[in-house]
Structure formats: C-alpha cells, structure tokens
Amino acid sequence: MCGIVGCVLNKKAAPTIIDSIKKLEYRGYDSVGIATVTDKINVKKGSGKIDEVDSKINLKDIDGNIGIAHVRWATHGNPTTENAHPHCDCKNKISVVHNGIIENYKELYQELKNEGHVFKSETDTEVIPHLIEKYMDEGQDLLTATQSTVKRLIGSYALAIISSDEPDKIIGARNESPLIAGISKDGNYLASDVPAILSETNQIIYLEDKEIIQVDKNGIKIMDLDLNPIEKEVTTITWDPEMAEKGGFDHFMIKEIYEEPQIIKDTLSEENKIKEIVKKFKNFNRICFVACGTSYHASLIGEYLIESKIGIPTEVILASEFEYFKKTLDDHTLVIFVTQSGETADTIKALKIAKKKSETLAIVNVVGSSITREADHVIYTRAGPEIGVAATKTYISQLICIYLLVAYLDENQELLDKLHSLSGLTEELLTKEKQIQTIAKKYSKAKDFFYIGRGFNYPTALEGALKLKEITYIHGEGYPAGELKHGPLALIDDNIPVVGILPPGPSYNKTFNNLQEIRARGADVIILGANNDTQISDFEDKLLFNPIIDEELAPLLYIIDLQLLAYYISIEKNIDPDKPKNLAKSVTVE
Fold first, then answer.
1. Mean pLDDT of 1-23
2. Exposed e or buried b for every residue in 286-304, given b needs 16+ CB within 10 A?
3. % of the chain beyond a pLDDT of 70
4. Which of 546, 485, 541 is nearest to 513 (CA)?
5. Strand ranges (DSSP E) for 277-354?
6. Per-residue buried b or exposed e for 416-431, using 16+ beta carbons within 10 Å of the residue's own CB
7. CB-based contacts of 52: which residues, under 8 Å, 6+ apart?
8. What are phi and psi of 468, to 5 degrees?
9. In sequence order, what are the residues at sequence separation of 6 or more whose Cβ sits closer than 8 angstroms to the Cβ of residue 137?
10. Contact 191, 170 (CB under 8 A)
11. Rounded to the nearest 5°, which phi and psi values hold at 5?
12. What are the strands of the beta sheet with 2-9, ordered from one edge?
C-alpha cells in the first residue's frame, strides 16, 4: 500500500513515472521507489517524501523506456529504504510493486527461505518476486510465472512486475485492490488511480478482481486467472487534469472546500437518475446504510432523514462490523453503501455479503470503481477528483445524493425545492473565512475540543470532530447535546473549547440551554448559529453566523464552517492538511 504506476513508453520512462506517482501523494505514504528495465533491473528508492528522496538520489535519472514505481504506506515493516518498494528476487532480474496485504506471506516466506531464497526486507510483498523467480527457474515465462504466483496468494493485491529476461513488457494483476490501465498513442500505463495518469491519457480500463494484464508497446491484453482473454470496455474520463491541481490555492483541501458550491450544482444534476432508480426499487420495509469514516457520518444524517420523514426503520453500520449483522438481511431490506473511492476493502466485502440476500445501492464518487460494478444500483456523486486526504467536497456531494434519494422516496417536492436553493447559500458561507481564521488562531493550542448538536446536527458534530482530529492532531469529540450530563460534562472546564451547532428549529431551545450550562462551567463556546439569531449575541466574538436555513438542511451548510475551522487550525500549527500523518486517502486494506 499505497500507490503504484507503471508505463511502457517510446521515450525515457522515469520522468513520466515520477510525475505520475507524485499525483498519488494524496493517498498517504512514507517511502518511494522506482524500477526500470534495460538489459538489467535498475532500482532507486528511499524513505521519506518524493521530493526528499529525489533530492538525494535523483529518481528521474534512471534509464529505460519501461518502468514501475510505488509510494508506500507501511503495513509490514517500518518505513525504511530496505522496506520501500520495488522489491526484487535473488538475482535482481525481477522487480515488483504491490498494493494490498498478502495474508499467507509467512508460510510462503518460510517455504522460499527453506529453498534457499534470501530476503532483504520485512515486507509481505517480497515473497512475490521470489515466487515468480522460482517459477521462471522452472521454465515458465513472466506471464505464466505471475499466474502461478497469484494463484498462491491469499489476500489483496494490485501488482506491477518487470523482468530483465523479458524487458519489453509489464505484467499486472489485481485482487481486492484497485488497478487501472491507460491507453495513449505515446504509451500504455498501469496505475492505482486515475489522477496518476490523467495528464497522459483519459482512456481508462478498469480491472476486476482475479484479472491479469500484460502491457507492452503494442497495447494491453487482459486475462482471467487461466489466461483466457477478456474483452474490456474503455472508459473516457471527463475530468480535466487541472481539476486535480491546486489552481492557485495553498492546499488541495481549501481548494476543494471552495469548490463545494459548484459541487452542489453538479450533484443536483443527478436528480433525474435518482428518480429513475427509486422507481426500480423492490418493496422493502427496512433500510441499512454501510460506510466508513466521513461516509458513515453522511449515512447517519440519512438515517435521521428517512426515519423522521418516511418512517422506514433505518440503521447505519460500519463496514468493518457489517459481517456481524449479516443474519438480519432479507429480501425486504435495501442496503445502501456510501463510499468516496468505491474501493474501500471493508465496504466491498460488506457489499458482497449483502448482495446474497438484499437489494443494494451504491453512492460513490469514482466512475468504474469496484463497488459501482457490484451494486444493483449506483448513484454518482459529482465531486470530481478529491486529492485532500480529509474528505470535504465528497461529503457534501454524498449528502446531496442522500437528500435527493429521501426526497424521491418521500415524494417531497418542498425538500427538492429547498435543495436547489443551496449553492448560493454556500457561497455566502465562504465569505466568513477571516472570522474563522481569527477563531482558529485563538484555539490552535487547545488540546481538546467538544462538538455538540442535536438531531440532524449530531452527525455534523461527529464530522467536525473528525476533521479536527485528522488534520490538526487535536483530540476532538462529537456528542449529542443532551448526553453531556451523562458523563462528558465532568471534563468541561476553561481549557476546553466547545463548538455548538445551533440552527433554528425544534431542538434550538434545548441545545441553547446546554450551551449556557457549558458556559457556566467556564468553557469557551464557539456557536454556529443563524444570521437572525439575537439570543446568542452575548457570546461575544466566538460566533459564526450562517444563512437562515431550517434544522433538517443545516448539515449541508454548517459543516463548511467546521471544515474551514479545522483547516485554519492546521495552518496555525504548521501542519500540511493535505497529508496528515498515518492516514491514506483510499484505505484498501482491512
């Protein structure tokens, strides 16, 4: 884990490969490496960020028109040069990059070690080049040796493999970890994700699990595990490569927050498709959302909306916990999978379980991703590429899809009309940036935050706390406002700022009283309220006034304040918000 690139070009490959692998930095990583093939395997790698390693060993100064590269997020073994990919066999004739986890690597390692193979790293990946070496020594070519190898692997993998014995090709393989191919007149490509190669080609082929690919100058050939050829559809990606660049902003995160008004408009354009999907649904009397992280919080808002407006029993289950609930599924349950990437391993596993008994719907941002090919129905969020690790615009687009879905399930024209008024209001929100910067400066040294809200805005409190944790490394907790008295109030003092989400609506008075209770215990309170709210005027300068919008729609606006607050606190703490430590964009391992 975490990102791979490979290419077969009619020119020196290293400059293109390094430029491409840089576009996967957003996935999170701690080391980088490149291998090319000439009459031998050429490898350069090291721990640290790409620019740091490049300044020491000049990654682009390596010969060969065919190569592979990797940015690694450590799973097996520390982030060291020895553990960085690519990994080679004993004779340095085979080089491999790998995303995923090989679950049976210890058994394979012991078998190969007993046969005399010498290992140089602590990684699970290194068994792969040694297995390929073993089978090539027995007379197989690179393709069939890869076939024999992957049939022995248990776990997840996306692989790119080169060999100096067959220096004209790359062999790739996929199982439970994303791998795409790209085709252009100047060369052919493998990658983990579209942004890596979008500046080179927008003609993309998505591999499925248990498929093998051969890439050479003549094109690509995709096969099943028995090497039977498979015809694949070529997808034309409509993203402009500039959409994946910073466009004058200091960080991707702030750029993507500023894209949210347009994202709302773009995702609302999916309205008719959602209407048609709702018409196709079978009868169901229960809804289950399945998601992780930020998508889980979007799903919680879906639960509140469906149960309060339609009255269908609804629950939200973390994808990693889903298998413990599988016996509750039946053919009257609709299971909705919410995922930005469409490649999260836990969510894919849950979808495969759910399909056996229930109707399934995916809400996903990446066209052609694994989950879009598994689910019965698909709703696309139109957020475009999101590079910042902390989800911002994809969260907003997920919420828009969920609100649209509920509106059509409920045949609620009033809700649809309200949704179409939102994008202008989000633009108004973004004018408060200076005020949020001032608050961020004041509280950047805090060690703990509490976020509170009620009803529809409790999940917003959870998401605001998550953003704070992700990119500032400050401990933040989200709570239902009414639960403070059941334990957390014991922690409240003048060292802990409390963010109160206070839109107008039925829960306003109760939440306001909770905030007064907190103030009485000496805590600073930061209130997110409406423009016309006169009750909160005595809270001095720690106020963020929002457009007047009712409580059920507040999650679509108030979260923007909290995204900006987390962003500017990270800037005050001199933390890169695009690359938080220990986190990756698409978590494709369990």
1. 90
2. bbbbbbbbbbbbbbbbbbb
3. 96
4. 485
5. 286-291, 314-318, 333-339
6. bebbeebbebbeebee
7. 46
8. -60, -45
9. none
10. no
11. -140, 140
12. 41-47, 31-37, 66-72, 2-9, 187-191, 180-184, 203-206, 235-236
**CB of 295 closer than 8 Å to CB of 339:** yes
Residue 153 in tokens: 């692997």
Question: Could you give the residue ranges of the DSSP H alpha helices within 421-491?
Answer: 422-429, 433-443, 458-472
Cα–Cα distance, 59 to 67 (Å, whole number): 12
User: Which residues have C-beta within 8 Å of that of residue 2, sequence separation ≥ 6?
Assistant: 24, 27, 28, 29, 71, 72, 73, 99, 192, 584, 586
Between CA 361 and CA 338 the distance in angstroms is 9
The pLDDT value recorded for residue 247 is 64
Nearest to 518, CA basis, from 478, 491, 545: 491
Tell if the pTM clears 0.85, that is, is over it: no
Neighbours of 61 (CB within 10 A): 11
> Is the pLDDT higher at 461 or at 368?
461
Q: Are 328 and 308 in contact (CB under 8 A)?
A: no
Closest to 478 (Cα-Cα) out of 444, 451, 455: 451
| Token couple for 121 | 């790293």
* pLDDT digits 0-9 by tens, 91-128: 999 999 998 889 899 999 999 999 999 999 999 999 99
Q: Tell me, what's the pLDDT at 1? A: 54
Q: Give the pLDDT of residue 588.
A: 46
DSSP of 80-134: -TTTSSPEE-TTS-EEEEEES-BTTHHHHHHHHHHTT----SS-STTHHHHHHHH
Cβ(204)–Cβ(247) under 8 Å? no
Per DSSP, the three-state class of 365 is coil
Give me the active site residues, please. 2, 585
Length of the chain: 590
At 137-165, the pLDDT tens digits run: 999 999 999 999 999 999 889 999 999 99
**Structure tokens belonging to residue 473:** 């490394």
Cα 271 to chain centroid, rounded: 24
